[in-house]
Structure formats: structure tokens, C-alpha cells
Amino acid sequence: MSYAEKFSAIFDGLQEAYGTYRVDRKNANGKNTGKATVIREPRTTDLWENHLAGKGDALGIIPINADNKVRWGCLDIDVYPLDHGELIKKIRTLKLPMVVCRSKSGGAHCYFFVAEWMAAKDMQETLRHVGAALGHGDAEIFPKQIRLFLQRGDVGNFLNLPYFDFENGLRYAIQDDGSAATLEEFFELHKKHVQTPEQLLALTVDTDEAQPIKDGPPCLQHLCAQKISEGSRNNGLFNIGVYLRKAYSDSWENEILKYNNDYIDPPLPLNEVNAVARQLQKKDYIYKCKDAPINAFCNAELCRTRKHGIDAASSDMTIANLRKYNSQPPVWFLDVNSEPLEMDTDTLLTQGVFQKACVEQLNFMPRSLTKPAWENRITGLLSEMNQNDDSIIEVSEDASTSGQFYDHLEEWCTNLQRASERDEILLRRPYTDDEQSLIFFRLRDFENHLKKVKFTEFKAHKIAQRLRDLNGRSTVIKIKGKSVRVWTIPSYETRPVELDTPDFKSNKEVPF
């Protein structure tokens, strides 16, 4: 089996589309940026061979297939600079069967590989759990979706693969000793660490029951196990205090002193501990899940199952990964609790319409936010989208509303029902004047045709504008002595279509 065949079998994914990426520049934070493109056609052997040879653009694969299953998953850790050796040491300490590859920007792609297809949802939950344990709970996870809406045009997100230009490139796997792995050594790493779906689902990195923060957030369990150091002590103790108010409602003020001495390194002075306690007395605070130091260890799904984890009333939906299909008008997809929600622009901007779409498509009702909070959230999603090269996807003209309009116009003007004489315009037919190379028709007749084919996106003024875009114009002509307002557009070039005539002759005798 060739290198390309082995590599393609390991990184199998969606067959209907793939991604390409060309690096243009490096940002100040060290991350490479460039042009990402989604191509909606099956992959070929040449694509895999060119990727490994470093020819053309790097190949990206969408891990989730049409059945919403995966053969691999990845934690995409964008930290620069990143100590890959320390990361691998921690992975092996936790006995995780991961393969770590250097990303195009120098970060890390940490892979789980499975021998058989497994549910994307299960892979995603496992990666989220492991990311929190590694202190990278904020890392991107691939697959980003747990199901696709292929029939609506959504193909999800691709990940750039390692070993672009495998002999000279920098996107290689890293051995446990920190050295770069050749492509053949990567195949050995894959063979060593590949799991069955059952093995992967059985992985556990849960904190021991004897450790602190019993029945509390996993982020605090991890942090207390390694102690919270300077730079994070006040925020860390505040979140510990939120837990203590839940677990020890009558004695939490005494417990916070003990936790400060046992799990803050060095412990905060008494006056600072008292200041944190006074904050907690003012109101029933919730965990600051988005702030350091706990954000890096966040595992919201597991936390919600804990007795003293995130309150059901305060937990909110997870919305992320906004992407735009640049049709006219655009179509938007947003992952709500990891499931894609399809929207138009009004749905994206209007909270009430957004909630209705969630109920209709996902059987889920998100709680309402204040208008400023909602606008801030959408602004943040748009900002993230503009920073992700693969989140704005160009579509072919025929997939856009304008493209469909022009297809309907051409079909109406060139079909068998068109007029053979100019007088037949009054019979609601378009007429082609071959000498002038113009097509004449009444606007209301074309509007009626659009209604018959159930195209209702354009009103009369938009139809008129699209006709002007074709160098069309409105004019008045005489038909049987009557002034008739018509539109003219340039005629379409007609080409004879040659079809092979089937041969119905047969030398066989008819059996009856």
C-alpha cells in the first residue's frame, strides 16, 4: 500500500467535500493565516499524493461523514510558543492514547484515532473531557459538529492535515522523546495508539474521589490538585468560594480559610481572603467559567452533572462557529450545543426569531438575553468568523437566489411555449426578434411564471433591477394598434443539442 493510501485511510472523513489552505502570512501572535477554500467534490488519489509531496495547496479534511460518524478527532491547541515536550509528557502521565502533531503555526494538533467509525458526538465529548484535563479546555475541537445538514448545503469545518511536504515540511508528528517523526514513524504511532470506539469511550481522567472539591466543577478539582499559583490566586479562591457556598452553606466562611491554606500557593493574606469572602456575601454568585484560571480546564458538560457544578438555571446554550455561505442572500449556520442551526440574516440578528428557529430545528428553547447582551454575543461571533479563514464559504452562482432567477428567466424565454410572432406577446408569451437579437415580454407575464415555479424571493422592483443588470430596458411598442409596455433583454444564444438516437433494433426473435 502506498503512503497516500495509508494516509488517506487514517484521515478518512466526509466524501462529499474537502478543504484546501494556502498560507499567506504570519500574524503577530505567531499564527499563520491565508486563504481557505471548501471544494464540494470527492477527493482523489492525486490530492493525497500532492499534499504529501507539498504540491499546490495543503489538504484539509472534514472529519464527520454523511452518517455523522468519525474515524479521528483532534484538539487544536493554538498556544504560541508551545512546549510540545511538556504537552506530550502530560498526555502520557494521564495515559492518553493521543498522537501529537505540530500544526502549521507551531501549535499542536492532538489526535485520537479509532479503528472503526464512531458517533461524532461521542468523539467530541471525549475530546472536551480530555482537553479540560490537559488544561486546554478552550482548545478547538474537531469534529466541530455532531451532525451535518448536507441537504441544506452545510458541510461543516475541515482541519488542515499534517505532513504537507512530508520530507521537508514542519507539520510532523512528535515522538515521546520530542523528536520529529518521519511519515513511516507516524504510521507506527498511529498503529500503537489507535483505539476501538469502546476503548476510547472507556477512557477516564476524572479526579479521584479523595481529592478536593467533591461533587464540584472538574476545573477546580484539577486546579486544586496542582495548587493555584500567583497570578490566579484571587480568581481561583473566588471560584472555590462559590463552590463552598453551595457545598457548605452554614460553614463556608471557615472552609474558605482552610482551602486557602491547602490549595493556594502561596496562600493569600488574611485581608485578601476576607475581601473575597465579602464579595461572596453580597449575592449568590455563579462560577466565572469564562475567566482564568478555570477557563482553561472547563468541561461544562461534565460540570452540569455534578451536584455542586453549574446550576441548571444559570447554564446557557453553547453557541459557536458561525459560518456564512456567500450566496445572495447569504445563508448562515451556527452550532447550537454542537448541532448546526440554519438561518437567514434576520434570524441571526433577531433574538426572538432565533429562538423560534431553535425550537423548530433543534427542539430546544434558549433563554432570553437583554438586547445589549444579545448584540454583544452576535458581534463576538461575527468577529471570530472573520478571523477564521474557512468560515466564509463562497458558493457557485447557480446556488444563489440571483442565479436561480436568471435560470428561470432563460428557461421561460427559450422554452417551447415562446411566441413565434410578436402579436403573441398578448398571449403571455416571450417573443424573440432574431434581427434585433432582443427578447420582448410583459413583466407581469414573467412574474406569473415565477409564481408557477414557486420563486417568490424577488418582488417587482428587484425583478426590474435584475433585468437592467442584463442590459434590459422598459419600452412601449405597438401590437395590433395598441400601446403595450414590455421589457427587452438581449436574446440567448441557442445551440443545437445532439442526442444519440437509441437503437431499438434487435436480432433476437420476439418470444410471442
Protein architecture, described:
It is built from 17 helices and 18 strands. Helix 1 packs parallel to helix 5 (183-193), helix 8 crosses helix 9 and helix 8 (233-247) crosses helix 10. The two termini are 55 Å apart. The chain has a four-stranded antiparallel β-sheet with strand order 2-1-3-8, covered by helices on one side. A four-stranded antiparallel β-sheet has the order 5-6-4-7. Strands 13-12-11-14 form a four-stranded mixed β-sheet. The chain has 512 residues and is α+β, with helices and mostly antiparallel strands. It is 35% helix and 19% strand. It folds into four domains: 3-201, Alpha-Beta Complex (DNA primase, PRIM domain), CATH 3.90.920; 218-304, no CATH class; 319-393, no CATH class; 398-490, no CATH class.
CATH architecture of the largest domain: Alpha-Beta Complex
CATH class of the largest domain: Alpha Beta
Helix content: 25-40%
Q: Kindly report the average pLDDT value.
A: 86
Strand content: 15-25%
Strand order across the largest sheet: 2-1-3-8
By DSSP (H or I, 4+ residues per run), the number of helices equals 17
End-to-end separation: 55 Å
CATH superfamily caption of the largest domain? HP0184-like
Low-confidence region ranges: none
CATH topology annotation of the largest domain: DNA primase, PRIM domain
Structural class designation:
alpha+beta
Large-scale geometry: globular
Tally of individual domains: 4
Total strand segments? 18
Whole-number radius of gyration? 31 Å
Largest sheet: 4 strands, antiparallel
